[in-house]
Amino acid sequence: MKQWKVWAVSLLFFALCACAREGTASGTEGLPVQAGESALSWDSLAWSGSLELTYAQQFSVDYAQEGFARIIIDGSVYLLVPEDGLCPADVPEEVVVLRRPLENIYLQATAAMDCFRQLDAIDAVTLSGTQEEGWYIPEARQAMEDGRMVYAGKYSAPDYELIKSQNCDLALESTMIYHNPEVKEQLERLGIPVLVERSSYESHPLGRMEWVKLYGVLLGLEEAADIYFNDQLEQLAPILGRENTGKTVAFFSITSNGSVTVRKPGDYIAKAIALAGGVYVLQNLPGEENALSTMNIQMETFYQEAKDADILIYNSAIEADLDTLAQLTAKSAPLTDFKAVQNGDVWCTGKSMFQESQSVGDMILDIHTILTEPDSSQLTYLHRLT
Questions:
Q1: Full domain range(s) for residue 362
Q2: Exposure string for 35-50, b = 16+ CB within 10 A, e = fewer
């Protein structure tokens, strides 16, 4: 009996795959396509305008007549077709076709959830690649508690049958999917378009925030996205124009084996510190530049570079939040010699900060506050260790 059940499930899965193979990776199969001599074709689309971007460089959006949008991310091209519109004829196979409304999204890229939240569009995400207890965004957790969003497997092992049965219209993946290319291929074989999110590759901190505009395009909420992003810039305007304080800041965490995880000088956190009016103290770290924004160094090196830093910020994203200096120095005794520890100028991040991709603006404001007027009552993501 057990073998029969396994055989039956396998047969169902391969039947789904067989149906999906009738389509193509572009996703044009199943969409009404324009026909006739007067119909629009891919080559006849006239791209007459572009989405205005101030900081973001990892995506672009061009517009054509009749509501079409062309999105380009790291060389991948997506055609966004308006609701009830006909898909142009002769769309190249490598172009991924998306159709509004996108309302059954499988979201594995956790950094994107905050954009949906800020646009009041979390209900467009019905399938989660993160389990309920893994969400630090209250609205996402609540959606899972209410059953409006269900767990559909992590990036490396999605529940294909569930995703297909829920009429998923977009799989929104992080670049982790490139470690399991077979997953992306399988989703596409099932007729589910895949978009890979790359906001973490933005070189400017505010470029990460500007990805909210991309989700505004996808969801038909461009105006709301523009208003939100411009409001964030207005809040930051008084800070960005000020002279640097010259105070040095180290951003770090301690691993279980006693080494120190720090941000590279070109990382967005290091740049956010500069925008806030500080100086990232770890400017001369050894090692080559690569896609990773962090690196591990020995405590001896960290001691040399950061012992005299004016401010220490402990990153609690991986382990539990810290509340006291004693908890910090228990992780590594040499920290007791640090100037910031002795002066009580040590701060800790909240665990939600890195999941909330739109936190960059508030984080810059927080850092500026502790550099200039250390009043913890005004902070969003940082708290002082006592």
A1: 243-384
A2: eeeeebebeebeeeee
Task: Give the span between the Cα atoms of 201 and 378, in whole angstroms.
Answer: 30
Looking at the structure, tell me whether residues 109 and 66 fall in a common domain.
Answer: yes
Q: Are residues 287 and 192 located together in one domain of the fold?
A: no
Residue with token string 């910020």: 313
Q: Work out the mean pLDDT of the chain and round it to a whole number.
A: 88
What are the distances in angstroms from CA 163 to CA 2, 82, 97, 157, 333?
A: 25, 23, 18, 12, 49
pLDDT tens for 147-200 read 999 999 999 999 999 999 999 999 999 999 999 999 999 999 999 999 999 998
Domain end point (choices 207, 231, 255): 231
Which domain-ending residue is among 174, 206, 231?
A: 231
Higher-scoring residue by pLDDT: 385, 38:
385
SS3 per residue for 32-67:
CECCCCCCCEHHHCCEEEECCCCCCCCEEEEEEHHH
Angle between the 268-276 and 222-240 helix axes, to the nearest 10 degrees? 60
Residues 92 and 225 in one domain: yes
Number of domains in the chain: 2
Q: Are residues 260 and 364 in the same domain?
A: yes
CA 298 to chain centre: 29
Rounded CA separation 306/248 (Å): 9
Mean pLDDT (whole number) for 9-23: 40
18 within some domain: no
Give the separation between CA 358 and CA 211, rounded to whole angstroms: 9
Looking at residue 28, what is its pLDDT? 59
Q: What is the CATH number of the domain that holds 150?
A: 3.40.50.1980
> In terms of domains, do 134 and 71 share one?
yes
CB-based contact 46:63 (threshold 8 Å): no
183 in Cβ contact with 155 (< 8 Å): yes
pLDDT, tens digit, 9 for 90 and up, residues 73-99 = 999 999 999 998 889 999 999 999 999
**Is 218 found in the same domain as 169?**
yes
Q: Based on C-alpha coordinates, what's the Rg of the chain? A: 24
Do you know the residue count of the chain?
Answer: 386
**What is the spatial distance between Cα 227 and Cα 225, in angstroms, rounded to a whole number?**
5
Phi-psi region of 27 (alpha: psi -120 to 50; beta: other; left: phi over 0): left
Give residue 338's pLDDT: 98
Same domain, 122 and 255: no
